[in-house]
Specification:
- By secondary structure, the protein is of the alpha/beta class.
- The protein has 13 helices and 23 strands.
- The strands form 8 sheets. An 8-stranded mixed beta sheet has the order 16-11-17-3-18-19-6-20, with helices on both faces. The protein has a 3-stranded antiparallel beta sheet with strand order 9-8-10, with no helix packed on it.
- It is globular, with a radius of gyration of 22 Å.
């Protein structure tokens, strides 16, 4: 059945019913009722005086709080290629629940001795996929450029990954780009899939690296952009990350420029760097939420400044060591999409005016340090929509992070959410900004083409259906997506097609009742996330608590 008006209106008719359930649930947790969130004042007041919980606004589903954990650079096959079979030769052992659904992975069937199939033993690429062990959690970074990923896809044959996306810093002729982890290393991810819901048909919205992925998450749009000099702020050509400008002086972000509205871009070297910065115009989901006076925030590790430069710019110098002992700077400016938009940026990295103001519009402009999110869990003012970005050493990005550091962040964060009074009305989405170029066998469906010198035949032969900005070809590669919520069925694998911009669409449908970004946003072509939920099923409020070190289930 299609998603026509009747399909869309049906959840809205239940909205007030679900709002009543959510309010009753919160009251049952021992909290008093405060002001309606949609009309609440953003005036600061002491956190110690927050003795009530704000009634959430009416939503189209029971979800009153959405937490999007946006990690880095993983293809579906890289983490779930042999799910639910784990070799159990190293790391944490994993045993799937009886009846667990097979996925569209690297195997054709699972035998008592393991998965088998031609993709594992007679792969069309130069190397067969090999299982990476628990001790191989630290790897090199792969090539995940806009054109390189298209070339690897080879017009749908999926056979040129070694030639085009294997990283130049990887061991020569290793075929590492083909390799995958199983439940002995990404144990927490597999256990979340066992206990909640997972998509096996979720896609990177467009080809390319982190910045396009982050922009697509919040707007479904990487066009309507231009580059500026970091030293003068004057518009400049940028053939390396922003495409040539049209007659209106706007192009498309297809690489990883740092944002123009961020003091910490290019390591705060704004007076000496020659790297251009990027500005994105138009609207993002934050603008739409602000227009409705709804609470939201982007929370990122290392956002809080550690000092200032001699010219008064913020310095983001916090760092941590990963499991290999390397010291990694926490904050990455090009992972923070709202800093590309003047309307939602916090260039000086100013803190919220008070704990109670987190989520509301004030000097922080909804851009926060990750620590501020945990504060909202403690003091009862968790925003309706929260985007979380780990510090770099824990964000999963190969080259400086890894699945084990990522697991620590995911489990510690999700455990806290599940133990909070918000759990009963919350959905946590875990997904990724791009594939890093890691092999995934499933050929993409191109819903929006592009025909420039950057594009391979798979894109240049397809119609450009979403507006006039080129170099936005997609969908690209499959990415993992998990939904962790009381409102999912246990051990669900969904085959409904979604993409990164489906997160924007869910926010639009749930809080904004179908309002769209417009201007050629991918939200118009993105699938709905409803198949990952079970809104009509009895409530299941159990919390599945995991061990952050092993990923194993502790309780639940």
């Amino acid at each position: 059945m299609g998603e026509g008006p009747a399909m869309i209106r049906a959840p809205y008719r239940r909205a007030r019913y679900y709002a009543a359930i959510a309010a009753a649930t919160v009251l049952g947790a021992g909290f008093a009722v405060g002001a309606t969130e949609a009309g609440a004042s953003a005036a600061p007041h002491a956190a110690s005086s927050v003795a009530s919980v704000i009634i959430p606004p009416v939503t189209a589903t029971p979800i009153k709080h959405l937490v999007v954990i946006f990690d880095e650079n993983v293809s579906f096959d890289h983490y779930f290629g042999t799910y639910p079979f784990a070799a159990n030769k190293d790391g944490s052992t994993f045993h799937a629940r009886p009846g667990t659904q097979a996925v569209n992975g690297l195997y054709t069937k699972i035998t008592p001795s393991g998965p088998v199939g031609p993709l594992l033993t007679s792969n069309p690429n130069l190397f067969n996929p090999q299982r990476l062990t628990h001790e191989q959690a630290l790897t090199c970074d792969q090539n995940h450029g806009y054109t390189a990923e298209q070339d690897a896809v080879d017009n749908g044959k999926m056979d040129k990954f070694v030639q085009f996306t294997e990283g130049s810093g990887c061991p020569a002729n290793s075929g590492l780009v083909m390799d995958y982890y199983d439940g002995n290393t990404v144990t927490a991810m597999w256990n979340y899939a066992q206990n909640y819901a997972m998509s096996q048909n979720n896609w990177d919205t467009t080809f390319g690296p982190s910045t396009p992925g982050a922009l697509n998450l919040i707007s479904g749009q990487t066009g309507a952009a231009y580059a500026v000099s970091a030293t003068t702020g004057v518009k400049v050509p940028d053939p390396g990350s922003v495409s040539p400008l049209n007659s209106a002086g706007l192009g498309t972000v297809y690489g990883d420029p740092d944002p123009a509205f961020d003091d910490c871009s290019d390591g705060s070297a704004r007076t000496t760097t020659s790297n251009p910065l990027a500005v994105v115009t138009g609207k993002n989901i934050g603008d739409l939420l602000n227009a409705r006076n709804l609470t939201w925030g982007w929370f990122q590790g290392g956002f809080a400044p550690t000092g200032t430069t001699s010219t008064g710019l913020a310095v983001c110098g916090a760092s941590h060591k990963n499991i290999g002992g390397s010291t990694i700077t926490d904050y990455s400016p090009h992972h923070e999409p709202f800093q590309y938009y003047k309307s939602t940026a916090n260039p000086r990295h100013l803190p919220p005016s008070s704990e109670a103001a987190i989520g509301h519009t004030d000097q922080a402009s909804h851009q926060y340090d990750l620590s501020d999110f945990y504060t909202t869990l403690t003091h009862g003012n968790m925003p309706a929509v929260s985007f979380l970005k780990a510090a770099e050493y824990q964000d999963g990005h190969p080259g400086y992070s890894d699945p084990l550091d990522e697991q620590t962040f995911l489990v510690n964060t999700i455990n806290q959410i599940e133990k909070s009074p918000f759990w009963k009305s919350t959905a946590v989405i875990v997904t990724y900004d791009d594939s890093d170029g890691w092999y995934d066998h499933q050929a993409p469906v191109i819903v929006n083409g592009s025909n420039t010198t950057l594009d391979a035949p798979i894109c240049s032969s397809a119609a450009m259906t979403l507006g006039s900005f080129p170099d936005r070809c997609g969908f690209s590669q499959r990415l993992p997506m998990l939904v962790i919520s009381p409102w999912t069925r246990q051990n669900l694998v969904s085959n409904k097609r979604t993409d990164t911009s489906s997160v924007t669409r869910f926010i639009e449908d749930n809080w904004l009742f179908g309002q769209r970004i417009g201007g050629g946003s991918y939200d118009a072509a993105s699938g709905r996330l409803n198949s990952l939920f079970s809104f009509l099923a009895p409530l299941n409020f159990r919390e599945v608590i995991l061990d952050p070190a092993t990923g194993k289930v502790v309780s639940g």
